[in-house]
Automatic annotation (TrEMBL):
<dbReference type="InterPro" id="IPR008557">
    <property type="entry name" value="PhoX"/>
</dbReference>
<protein>
    <submittedName>
        <fullName>DUF839 domain-containing protein</fullName>
    </submittedName>
</protein>
<keyword id="KW-0732">Signal</keyword>
<feature type="signal peptide">
    <location>
        <begin position="1"/>
        <end position="21"/>
    </location>
</feature>
<dbReference type="Pfam" id="PF05787">
    <property type="entry name" value="PhoX"/>
</dbReference>
Length: 558
């Protein structure tokens, strides 16, 4: 089914029914040591935007941390041949196979607003820290040769409070340049701040849409005293914090106790082309989950959303993480995400465990219909919950019994579907077994979906984890039961006129080598993915030095 050419160009999987014309992989960029590929996006004229996130593995810009880069590839040529992996002594910089990488800014640069690039400012305007983790890039033109670039900054490690920068661009002699003196960080206080702002997309109607990749599966632990005391160390580091992302951090941002139901949604920026009249809208109707990004179909109503989490990170006592769910949102009206119906995917695997061959049939379970105003009103009912309300073994938030009532059709309202979307999806029979479900992108009738690893909850030998208790039944492989492939993979679906996904097939699957690393001439641990204007797929890595020498950006040609 798959043939590999272990060189800069490698052949990839051929789908059933597709001709034997060879498709190939071309390595088009490599990151600085320890940096992840993020921010890959394009504009109407085909420019390629690209960031180097957390170089040196440093999520906070401080001390001796190398600064994260935000920029683009000037005069990128998709027809150019691939590039080799740089030798070890030449891995300090971002390198490309064609054109030139132009840096718009580095974490910590001074902005004309008096702020710093990547700075996370609390609701009162005080600097909390400088993020070294730029992710989403969204290009918004304001004229033939002027634009703004919006970039989401993904907090700083366990500190989830995030930021959005707005950089003024102008094009001279065909090359975009940044004017940091006319640039700023946005005030996110109107939406209670952003939690772990990850990837996103520019909507077909021209607005940036950013995803809150909020890692918080068990809301009952949000107001646990251990999460809010002076010891801010994670349990794995000898501390007493229960959760990886610190609830205390969002409370520090607000200056008061934060509400978990205010985080984990898609955030849209309206009036994005204006100089100072940006309007942020948090779309509660898109559901509360670990949003990675979204793919908006040509009807401007159907949206596919990926839920990025992994059960391997779960606290052994409190069941704080699970595998992710593949979600669909269908808006009531084209171009308006404020109201619609939320669905979750039920997967049915082919009769093989081979990750190179196993496709999945998909049916959709309707979770509920809602609108921003109603769902935000439900969320607001929990604004006054504090640490003092915590009782071990109980919850100050939506209980599992309330979720079960929604699944049984006996709940008084649909709040469970939108405030506890992943738990509700699992309770209603959807598949919550994806291990770090990452990018999703679309072009024409194709939808591509990336999973960073096909392991743990996707591994047939790992077992099935109960969504409520966290107990693992090792005799049950679950809906996704593959031979584990820790290097991950990208799937593809072909949709019809209704834009409904009913099946996905393996498209580009990584491969573990004899040393437990990933084969160097195949993408490893795909994260950001995007299609160019002609439909060519780009795959960005979040592999790290244990898997690949450097993270790379790949182009699928054929």
């Amino acid at each position: 089914m798959k043939k590999y050419l272990f060189a800069t160009v490698a052949a990839i999987a051929l789908l059933p029914g597709v001709s034997r014309a060879e498709m190939s992989l071309v390595r088009i960029a490599t990151m600085p040591d320890g940096a992840e590929v993020t921010g890959i996006s394009t504009n109407a004229i085909g420019d390629l935007f690209l960031n180097a996130q957390h170089p040196g593995g440093k999520n906070t810009f401080k001390d001796d941390a190398p600064a994260a880069l935000v920029g683009y590839v000037a005069r990128f040529d998709a027809a150019s041949p691939g590039m080799p992996i740089p030798p070890e002594d030449q891995r300090a910089d971002l390198q490309v196979n064609s054109g030139q990488y132009v840096t718009f800014g580095k974490a910590g640069d001074a902005l004309g607003s008096g702020e710093v690039f990547g700075g996370v400012y609390d609701a009162a305007g005080a600097l909390m820290y400088v993020s070294n983790a730029p992710d989403f890039n969204g290009f918004v033109p304001t004229g033939a040769n002027t634009a703004y670039l919006y970039t989401g900054w993904e907090g700083a490690g366990r500190d989830g409070a995030s930021a959005i920068s707005k950089v003024a661009l102008s094009r001279r002699d065909g090359v975009w340049q940044a004017d940091l003196s006319q640039s700023k960080m946005l005030d996110l206080s109107s939406v209670h701040g952003g939690a772990v702002l990850c990837s996103g997309t520019i909507t077909p109607w021209g607005t940036p849409l950013l995803a809150e990749e909020y890692f918080f599966y068990n809301s009952a632990t949000w107001n646990h005293p251990d999460n809010h005391d002076e010891d801010e160390r994670a349990g794995f580091a000898g501390g007493n914090d229960i959760n990886y992302i610190k609830p205390k951090n969002m409370s520090q941002y607000l200056g008061k106790m934060a509400n978990p139901y205010r985080y984990g949604y898609m955030i849209e920026i309206n009036n994005a082309a204006s100089a100072d009249d940006e309007q942020l809208v948090k779309h509660y109707a898109t559901g509360r989950l670990s949003h990675e990004t979204a793919a908006i179909m040509p009807d401007n109503r159907t949206i596919y959303m990926t839920d990025d989490d992994s059960a391997v990170y779960s606290h052994e006592t409190y069941n704080t993480a699970s595998g992710g769910v593949f979600f669909k949102f269908v808006a009531d009206h084209p171009g308006d995400l404020s109201a619609g119906t939320l669905y979750a995917a039920k997967m049915m695997q082919d009769d093989t465990a081979d990750p190179d061959k196993a496709g999945f049939d998909i049916t959709w379970i309707e979770l509920g219909h809602g609108n921003n105003a109603q769902i935000e009103a439900w969320a607001a009912e929990y604004d006054d919950v504090t640490v003092a309300d915590y009782v071990d073994g109980q919850t100050s938030y939506l209980s599992d019994d309330a979720i079960r009532a929604h699944a049984a059709g006996t709940a008084p309202d649909a709040r469970a579907a939108f405030l506890e979307s992943r738990r509700t999806a699992a309770a209603m029979g959807a598949t919550n077994e994806w291990d770090k479900l990452e990018g999703v992108t679309t072009h024409g009738d194709k939808v591509y979906i990336a999973a960073s690893a096909l392991a743990f909850t996707m591994d047939k030998s790992w077992g099935h984890k109960d969504w409520s208790t966290g107990e693992i039944d090792t005799s049950n492989g679950g809906d996704i039961a593959l031979n584990a492939e820790g290097c991950g993979g990208t799937y593809v679906s072909t949709v019809g006129a209704d834009y409904n996904i009913t099946r996905i097939e393996p498209y580009v699957i990584g491969q573990t080598d004899a040393e437990g690393r990933c084969v160097a001439d195949l993408p490893a641990n795909p994260d950001n993915i995007v299609t160019l204007n002609d439909g060519t797929l780009l795959i960005g890595e979040d592999a790290g030095p244990k898997r690949h020498d450097v993270d790379m950006l790949w182009m699928v040609k054929g």
